[in-house]
Design goal:
Order of helices and strands: EEHEHHEHH
Number of strands: 4
Radius of gyration: 14 Å
Strand order of the largest sheet: 1-2
Low-confidence stretches: none
Mean pLDDT: 90
Strand content: 5-15%
Structural class: mainly alpha
Helix content: 25-40%
């Protein structure tokens, strides 16, 4: 959100970003898990918050995936390839269907 050219962060976004910063390396959380943890938000709102992160943010957005354990596709981007690469570099494994075992790698599931 911008006000007079200055980025102004919604209070719920601050809570979302704080929760995502808490996901340990090598683990993932679902959009729904973050929404339940934060409260007063929905999985879709978590997705919007992740999409609105500025370049170079310290929020580990790549650790948030969908409820099926999959990386969600993004419009006009190949960000899902980067997300998978970053997760694999942290030791998160994907099965042959491109899914993460949430019972093994999940946080806040």
């Amino acid at each position: 959100m911008r006000k007079s050219g200055v980025r102004v962060e919604k209070p719920v976004y601050r809570r979302i970003y704080a929760a995502v910063r808490g996901i340990p390396p090598g683990h993932v959380a679902t959009y729904g898990g973050i929404a339940r943890h934060v409260g007063a938000s929905t999985p879709r709102q978590i997705g919007y918050a992740m999409a609105s992160l500025p370049a170079g943010s310290d929020v580990p957005w790549h650790r948030v995936i969908n409820a099926r354990g999959e990386v969600s596709c993004r419009k006009h981007s190949n960000g899902e390839l980067l997300q998978r690469k970053l997760l694999e570099e942290e030791g998160v494994y994907f099965d042959l269907k491109g899914r993460v075992d949430l019972s093994q790698f999940g946080w806040l599931t």
